[in-house]
Amino acid sequence: MAPPRAGPALALHAPVMNRALRGILSICALLVTGAGPGGTVVYGQSATRPAVRRLLPSNLQVDEARAIAQRKAVLDWNTKILVGSYDRAGHHSPKWDDAARRGLMMTARVWAADPDRPPDAVEQAWYALSTAIKQGCDDPLVQYIEVEFSASDYLKLVTAHRTYAALIKLAPEPYHPYLVARAMVESASTLSDASAGLNRTEWEPRRQSMIVIINRAYDMLPQIFSDREMPVTQLVNFVSDLHDPWGRSGADRMQRWAELERDFRQVRAATDPVLDILRARMLADSAWDVRGSGWAKDVKPEAWTEFYRRLADAEAAAARAAATHVSDYAVVRVMNAVALGLHGDSDELEAWFTLGKRLAPGDTYPYQARLNSLQPRWLGASEYDVLNFARRMVDTGNWNLRLPMLMITAHEGLLCGCEEELRVEYFSNPLVCSDVLGVYEKYLERYPNSAWDRASYIKYLAGCGRWSDVKQQLKLIPADRLHVGAFGGQDAYDKIVRKAATVAR
Predict the structure, then answer these.
(1) Which of 96, 400, 424, 478 could form a disulfide with 132 if both were Cys (CB 3.0 to 4.6 A apart)?
(2) CA dist., res. 349 & res. 336, Å (int)
(3) Where are the beta strands (DSSP E) in 285-342?
């Protein structure tokens, strides 16, 4: 018999949260923010936040017709550089063309945040592309995107090697420079991820490799900037991703601003408002680099001063961009980061959230950003703010955007920074199991072929001790759709399979 499904009465509202869960969350709050049960330390008082406001949600007057046209242009552009480019310059064969096109078209819908895409769009894209490859497809674009979608199925260093190998094949092909530069950034990022914890001697040659790859991507910026049809938000996100390896390594990404601005002005006017939104995003990202992700009490006074200064400059640049309506949504995304750090006003962040949903109804970023801002370590009064928001998302029933899945994100976020022992205890609690498993059960009733989500469901079933169900669910995943990454990697998958095998029928 199936267990009772999660419903509003079983959500982790204050009256039903037990002492064990409260204790775990209190410990995690201490680990992450330095705050005790009596209150959360978020920013500290070492510097004064600027009082002058340059951009509020009410200042952004949205033109609905323009917003609709921009959303259509995003999907059209991604379809052109993926499907259109493959049709023009890809490696073709009747054996794999259909699968390759299906995978690339679904990828375009994912990258464009098409609000009508299926909820398992990423898995569908991966499966179509991997099918094309099994049928003999040697097209570098198909192979690169398949590598990107399957990254979690491999050890981090293996993923770094696979990504670099795909990049080497893609670079000389006549595909859009954004695709090649994106692969370069992904190659550097995966190498960085695979290098955590290395000593200086081991790290240095990898760091030099990353620098070479990122500099090659920088060389392509004038070509990318020259494409006036490239969606502004996608361009801004790419530039942010390009500089993430610098930020993660402790370098100041703003040191490269002059070079980036020079490359931009080679092909576009100095008065082009896209430059303002690029500057705003760079400043906001670098501000958070300066602050760091540690405890507020450990942030140095001079870091607070620089943090606030850069966010204020980012807001000023975003206000200039907003006046031109070059990309209202790109402005909203920047202001989420600015408002969280500079103003600390939950009502304002709710307004930016509402604007983001309106401008980009297919993008989950506004929901993710709002959920993060409600964490107790930021602006939420307690864990109940996070879980109540997640419950609102479950109640939307919007499976295309996977909004009910934010219940899982919410629980995972509350445990951010916790030791594995506490995580195991938390996710084995019946109240948490009811919340998490209930969402997956509703989803899999509607989309039974979603193998990635079924695998994730199995992982949480195992954590809840429901091994008979684990054994039955494992049988429902076809071998050619198995993603071990959904289990947490090959070792975690093997461990679950071995344990399930010992369970009697």
Answers:
(1) 96
(2) 7
(3) none
